[in-house]
Amino acid sequence: MAANCNLSNRANDEGVLVGEGEFRRVRLGRYTEGPRVGERCVHKVFKTGGVYEDTFFTDDIKASDKAVEIAGAFQKYLSAKATPFVVRVNKPEVWKYTSGQHVGQKVLVEPFIPNFKKFNSNTGKADNNYEVAQALSHFSYDYSLGQLVLCDLQGGMEGSRCTLSDVVLLSNARAFGTTDLGSKGIENFFHHHRCNKICSPSWKRCARPAPHYI
User: Fold this and answer.
1) Interior CA angle at 209 toward 208 and 214, to 5°?
2) What is the Cα–Cα distance from 192 to 137, expressed in whole angstroms?
3) Please, which contacts does 43-51 make with residues 24 or more away whose CB atoms are closer than 8 Å?
4) How far apart are CA 214 and CA 44, in angstroms?
5) Alpha-carbon distance 120 to 128, whole Å?
6) Which residues contact 79 (CB under 8 A, 6 or more apart)?
7) Which helix or strand (DSSP H or E) is residue 27 part of?
8) Fewer beta carbons within 10 Å, N or C terminal of the chain?
9) pLDDT of residue 55
Protein backbone atom coordinates (compact mmCIF):
# COMPACT_ATOMS: atom_id res chain seq x y z
CA MET A 1 0.00 0.00 0.00
CA ALA A 2 1.27 3.47 -0.91
CA ALA A 3 -0.02 5.22 2.23
CA ASN A 4 2.31 5.77 5.19
CA CYS A 5 -0.14 6.16 8.10
CA ASN A 6 0.00 7.18 11.76
CA LEU A 7 -1.33 3.84 13.08
CA SER A 8 -2.05 5.68 16.32
CA ASN A 9 -4.52 8.11 17.87
CA ARG A 10 -2.23 9.76 20.38
CA ALA A 11 1.13 11.57 20.36
CA ASN A 12 2.88 14.30 22.29
CA ASP A 13 4.06 17.62 20.88
CA GLU A 14 7.65 18.37 21.89
CA GLY A 15 7.38 21.99 20.76
CA VAL A 16 10.54 21.76 18.65
CA LEU A 17 10.12 23.68 15.40
CA VAL A 18 11.56 21.71 12.47
CA GLY A 19 10.03 23.60 9.55
CA GLU A 20 7.98 26.63 8.61
CA GLY A 21 6.23 27.66 5.40
CA GLU A 22 3.93 30.41 4.28
CA PHE A 23 0.86 28.89 5.89
CA ARG A 24 2.01 26.63 8.73
CA ARG A 25 4.63 25.58 11.24
CA VAL A 26 5.91 22.03 11.74
CA ARG A 27 6.85 20.74 15.20
CA LEU A 28 8.33 17.43 16.32
CA GLY A 29 6.33 14.95 18.34
CA ARG A 30 6.38 11.31 19.35
CA TYR A 31 3.67 8.64 19.24
CA THR A 32 2.59 7.49 22.70
CA GLU A 33 0.45 4.50 21.74
CA GLY A 34 -0.18 2.00 18.95
CA PRO A 35 2.25 0.15 16.65
CA ARG A 36 4.42 3.27 16.26
CA VAL A 37 4.75 4.01 19.98
CA GLY A 38 8.06 5.77 20.62
CA GLU A 39 8.56 6.75 16.97
CA ARG A 40 8.77 10.35 15.80
CA CYS A 41 5.88 12.21 14.21
CA VAL A 42 5.26 15.81 13.16
CA HIS A 43 2.50 18.25 14.07
CA LYS A 44 1.55 20.72 11.33
CA VAL A 45 -0.21 23.80 12.65
CA PHE A 46 -1.68 26.44 10.36
CA LYS A 47 -0.73 30.00 11.18
CA THR A 48 -4.04 31.70 10.48
CA GLY A 49 -6.14 30.28 13.29
CA GLY A 50 -9.03 31.83 11.39
CA VAL A 51 -11.92 31.10 9.11
CA TYR A 52 -9.78 29.57 6.33
CA GLU A 53 -8.19 26.96 8.56
CA ASP A 54 -10.76 24.24 7.82
CA THR A 55 -10.22 24.78 4.08
CA PHE A 56 -6.46 24.28 4.50
CA PHE A 57 -7.01 21.01 6.37
CA THR A 58 -9.47 19.81 3.72
CA ASP A 59 -7.10 20.69 0.86
CA ASP A 60 -4.18 18.85 2.52
CA ILE A 61 -6.19 15.68 3.10
CA LYS A 62 -7.66 15.79 -0.42
CA ALA A 63 -4.21 16.19 -2.00
CA SER A 64 -2.64 13.41 0.06
CA ASP A 65 -5.50 11.01 -0.73
CA LYS A 66 -5.09 11.62 -4.46
CA ALA A 67 -1.31 11.33 -4.17
CA VAL A 68 -1.66 7.93 -2.44
CA GLU A 69 -3.88 6.75 -5.30
CA ILE A 70 -1.39 7.91 -7.95
CA ALA A 71 1.61 6.49 -6.08
CA GLY A 72 -0.15 3.14 -5.83
CA ALA A 73 -0.71 3.05 -9.59
CA PHE A 74 2.91 4.15 -10.20
CA GLN A 75 4.10 1.33 -7.94
CA LYS A 76 2.33 -1.16 -10.19
CA TYR A 77 4.08 0.40 -13.18
CA LEU A 78 7.48 0.08 -11.48
CA SER A 79 6.77 -3.54 -10.55
CA ALA A 80 5.82 -4.37 -14.13
CA LYS A 81 9.17 -2.92 -15.25
CA ALA A 82 10.96 -4.92 -12.52
CA THR A 83 12.20 -1.65 -11.02
CA PRO A 84 12.99 -2.39 -7.34
CA PHE A 85 11.73 0.85 -5.86
CA VAL A 86 8.96 1.63 -3.38
CA VAL A 87 7.15 4.98 -3.25
CA ARG A 88 4.94 5.87 -0.29
CA VAL A 89 3.06 9.04 0.63
CA ASN A 90 2.47 10.24 4.18
CA LYS A 91 -1.24 10.26 4.98
CA PRO A 92 -1.91 13.02 7.55
CA GLU A 93 -4.87 13.02 9.91
CA VAL A 94 -6.64 15.90 11.58
CA TRP A 95 -6.29 15.60 15.36
CA LYS A 96 -7.19 17.99 18.15
CA TYR A 97 -5.10 18.87 21.20
CA THR A 98 -6.81 17.64 24.38
CA SER A 99 -4.48 19.28 26.92
CA GLY A 100 -1.77 21.91 27.29
CA GLN A 101 -1.53 25.40 25.87
CA HIS A 102 -2.97 24.36 22.50
CA VAL A 103 -6.06 22.57 23.89
CA GLY A 104 -8.90 22.50 21.37
CA GLN A 105 -6.68 23.48 18.43
CA LYS A 106 -6.74 21.30 15.30
CA VAL A 107 -3.46 19.94 13.95
CA LEU A 108 -2.31 17.69 11.12
CA VAL A 109 -0.27 14.74 12.39
CA GLU A 110 1.81 12.38 10.26
CA PRO A 111 4.95 10.22 10.55
CA PHE A 112 8.29 12.03 10.70
CA ILE A 113 10.53 11.68 7.62
CA PRO A 114 14.30 11.89 8.27
CA ASN A 115 16.80 13.27 5.74
CA PHE A 116 14.14 15.46 4.15
CA LYS A 117 14.91 16.60 0.58
CA LYS A 118 13.08 18.40 -2.20
CA PHE A 119 12.98 16.55 -5.55
CA ASN A 120 10.94 19.00 -7.63
CA SER A 121 8.66 22.01 -7.14
CA ASN A 122 5.28 23.25 -8.30
CA THR A 123 7.03 25.96 -10.35
CA GLY A 124 9.09 23.70 -12.62
CA LYS A 125 12.38 23.30 -10.74
CA ALA A 126 13.62 19.72 -10.52
CA ASP A 127 16.61 17.77 -9.28
CA ASN A 128 17.11 15.30 -12.13
CA ASN A 129 19.37 13.14 -9.96
CA TYR A 130 16.12 11.72 -8.56
CA GLU A 131 14.73 10.01 -11.64
CA VAL A 132 11.94 8.13 -9.89
CA ALA A 133 10.47 11.37 -8.53
CA GLN A 134 10.54 13.10 -11.93
CA ALA A 135 9.00 10.05 -13.58
CA LEU A 136 6.24 9.94 -10.95
CA SER A 137 5.27 13.52 -11.77
CA HIS A 138 5.09 12.72 -15.50
CA PHE A 139 3.21 9.47 -14.80
CA SER A 140 0.55 11.38 -12.85
CA TYR A 141 -0.37 13.39 -15.96
CA ASP A 142 -0.83 10.25 -18.04
CA TYR A 143 -2.67 8.44 -15.24
CA SER A 144 -5.14 11.33 -14.86
CA LEU A 145 -5.72 11.51 -18.63
CA GLY A 146 -4.09 14.90 -18.81
CA GLN A 147 -6.00 16.50 -15.95
CA LEU A 148 -3.31 16.97 -13.29
CA VAL A 149 0.34 16.74 -12.29
CA LEU A 150 1.61 15.51 -8.92
CA CYS A 151 4.62 17.64 -8.05
CA ASP A 152 6.44 19.58 -5.34
CA LEU A 153 7.71 16.13 -4.45
CA GLN A 154 9.70 16.11 -1.24
CA GLY A 155 10.51 13.67 1.49
CA GLY A 156 13.13 11.10 2.35
CA MET A 157 15.11 8.51 0.39
CA GLU A 158 16.18 5.37 2.23
CA GLY A 159 17.83 2.85 -0.07
CA SER A 160 15.23 1.88 -2.66
CA ARG A 161 12.35 3.44 -0.71
CA CYS A 162 11.01 6.98 -0.99
CA THR A 163 8.47 8.50 1.39
CA LEU A 164 6.80 11.74 0.30
CA SER A 165 4.98 14.49 2.18
CA ASP A 166 3.44 17.91 1.50
CA VAL A 167 2.95 17.18 -2.17
CA VAL A 168 1.11 19.50 -4.54
CA LEU A 169 -1.38 18.74 -7.28
CA LEU A 170 -1.64 21.00 -10.31
CA SER A 171 -5.02 20.55 -12.00
CA ASN A 172 -6.83 22.07 -14.94
CA ALA A 173 -9.78 22.67 -12.60
CA ARG A 174 -7.61 24.23 -9.85
CA ALA A 175 -9.32 21.86 -7.42
CA PHE A 176 -6.50 21.45 -4.88
CA GLY A 177 -6.14 24.71 -3.00
CA THR A 178 -3.79 27.67 -3.01
CA THR A 179 -0.71 25.76 -4.25
CA ASP A 180 -2.59 24.40 -7.29
CA LEU A 181 -1.31 26.62 -10.13
CA GLY A 182 -3.77 25.22 -12.66
CA SER A 183 -3.19 24.68 -16.36
CA LYS A 184 -0.36 27.23 -16.47
CA GLY A 185 1.42 25.26 -13.78
CA ILE A 186 1.05 22.08 -15.87
CA GLU A 187 2.36 23.83 -18.98
CA ASN A 188 5.29 25.16 -16.98
CA PHE A 189 6.07 21.72 -15.52
CA PHE A 190 6.32 20.16 -18.98
CA HIS A 191 8.40 23.05 -20.28
CA HIS A 192 11.05 22.10 -17.70
CA HIS A 193 10.55 18.32 -17.53
CA ARG A 194 13.14 16.05 -19.13
CA CYS A 195 12.13 12.41 -19.50
CA ASN A 196 14.47 9.78 -18.09
CA LYS A 197 14.79 6.02 -18.45
CA ILE A 198 11.86 5.39 -16.08
CA CYS A 199 9.42 7.49 -18.10
CA SER A 200 7.45 5.65 -20.78
CA PRO A 201 7.42 7.02 -24.35
CA SER A 202 3.69 6.25 -24.41
CA TRP A 203 2.82 8.62 -21.57
CA LYS A 204 0.86 11.72 -22.40
CA ARG A 205 2.59 15.08 -22.50
CA CYS A 206 1.15 18.56 -22.33
CA ALA A 207 0.29 19.67 -25.89
CA ARG A 208 1.51 23.23 -25.38
CA PRO A 209 4.31 23.35 -22.78
CA ALA A 210 5.36 26.92 -22.05
CA PRO A 211 7.32 28.82 -19.40
CA HIS A 212 5.22 30.76 -16.92
CA TYR A 213 6.71 32.84 -14.14
CA ILE A 214 4.32 31.83 -11.37
Assistant:
1) 125
2) 12
3) 43/11, 43/13, 43/107, 43/108, 43/109, 44/92, 44/107, 44/108, 44/109, 44/110, 45/102, 45/105, 45/107, 45/108, 47/23, 48/23, 49/105
4) 25
5) 8
6) none
7) strand 24-31
8) N
9) 82
